[in-house]
Amino acid sequence: MDGGDDGNLVIKKRFVTEAELDERRKRRQEEWEKVRKPEDPEECPEEVYDPRSLYERLQEQKDRKQQEYEEQFKFKNMVRGLDEDETNFLDEVSRQQELIEKQRREEELKELKEYRISFV
């Protein structure tokens, strides 16, 4: 029966032979030579070993992206100063409101004077 052979094949694939490691290093070195710049070292840098599980690494990436997203839309980032055009516009609106208020007061005073004169 081939059932036992399939089990050994699965177990064998969990282990990496020295020849496979050498082949991988050779391929990485060839790829490194293609992209290496003159200021980079001749030897391909070793891959950094991360003992965490794939889940932990992906979770960290997800959390980092979520923090960046939240930072982007924080209230403090949404508030900005006024530029020159906006301040000029607001100054003009304020000046016009003062003029209207002044005219209204003058008209009220004029009407009050006329009313007082009418009683005299």
Can you describe this structure?
- The protein is mostly helical and 120 residues long.
- It has a domain at 83-119.
- Helix content is 74%, strand content 0%.
- It is built from five helices and no strands.
- The chain has helices spanning 3-14, 18-35, 54-72, 75-78, 84-119.
- The protein is rod-shaped and about 120 Å long.
Give me a quick take on this structure.
Residues 55-115 form a coiled coil. The chain has 120 residues and is an all-alpha fold.
- Helicity range of the residues? over 70%
| Structural class designation | mainly alpha
User: What is the element string, with H for helices and E for strands?
Assistant: HHHHH
- Overall number of strands: 0
Termini separation comes to 128 Å
- Proportion of β residues? under 5%
Shape, per Cα inertia axes: rod-shaped
Compute the gyration radius: what is it? 39 Å
Main sheet overview: none
Mean pLDDT: 82
- Uncertain residue segments: none
